[in-house]
Amino acid sequence: xxxxxxxxKSKIWRSPFPPFNYLNKMFKPNISLKDISHYKIGGKAKxxxxxxxxxxxxxxxxxxxxxNERIFILGSGTNILINDDGFDGLIIKPDLKIIEFxxxxxRAGAGVLVDDLVNSLIEKSFSGxxxxxxxxxxxxxxxxxxxxxxxxxxxxxxxxxxxLDISAGSLKIVERSVAECAFNYRSxxxxxxxxxxxxEREIILEVIFNIKKGNLSExxxxxxxxxxxxxxxxxxxxxxxGSSFKNISLSSIGNNKKLNGDILKTFPxxxxxxxxxPVAYLxxxxxxxxxxxxxxxxxxxHPNFIVNTLDATAKDVINLIELAKNEVRRxxxxxxxxxxxxx
Length: 343
Prior knowledge:
It is a single chain. By secondary structure, the chain is an alpha+beta fold. The protein folds into two domains: 1-233, Uridine Diphospho-n-acetylenolpyruvylglucosamine Reductase, domain 3 (2-Layer Sandwich), CATH 3.30.465.10; 237-342, UDP-N-acetylenolpyruvoylglucosamine reductase, C-terminal domain (Uridine Diphospho-n-acetylenolpyruvylglucosamine Reductase, domain 1, Alpha-Beta Complex). It is 22% helix and 25% strand. The protein contains seven helices and 22 strands. Strands 1-13-12-14-8-7 form a six-stranded antiparallel β-sheet. The model is unreliable at 6-23 and 194-199 (pLDDT under 50).
């Protein structure tokens, strides 16, 4: 796979800076998260810092500890519903943008946009992530949530993930193989840690992907097909967080007493990447397409998207989430699980 990552050469990092009781000027105070979020929703962060390299991430974590501030890691905010009260602590945005090719692998910083990485692969006729063309969000966020679309999942291309463990007194670089990342449906070991709690445990720094040479015209054809599908089927004209809910796995409904084999045949089934019932269909069957609350709306175009049509609040979105969950439960006895996360 090539040489060892520069990030992995030093396993333990201890701050060279003495404790202090004042706020370092590196942090920006009172920053509107609404302006940063992909959803254009959210209150203000007490402090905000965009880290351009690994040392800046380490220093910001150390300084936040010195002043006893909570820490939250934010990528591009494409899957996070930020509450209207904002965040009483430090938001760190790891703006790590390196893309480095090495034989049949590529190293990507956590802050690289997935779409930029896909385009870089296509330019060099590399295959492995063309299914993700047009996918919003960063590499770090995609790995954290095992992003997937069109039957593909990010875990299929991952070779190694490098993260920073900030749970202990010292900051430690951690390397995991794909098997050690505990990838599952829209989940991973990183997402299953204490998300949004006063103490974040790990920050994804970089990801090594396996890639292979392919036919350029075929790779482009797949990428363009998926991008065109998104344009046609997804409500891209409004801010959203993508799919609000995870699809219903067929393997999870065996004990649903309201369903039998004949009724199951009436549901559309798609592979995501395993057989699922699309939540968009269930929400549509509940008559919720186009239903609004404040400035938020269940999209008529794709009812698993809750779009921000008119300066929506997080409370507007939560009300529609609860409405969809209640109606799907009443009609189908399915318990919807959010794919989005909350801050």
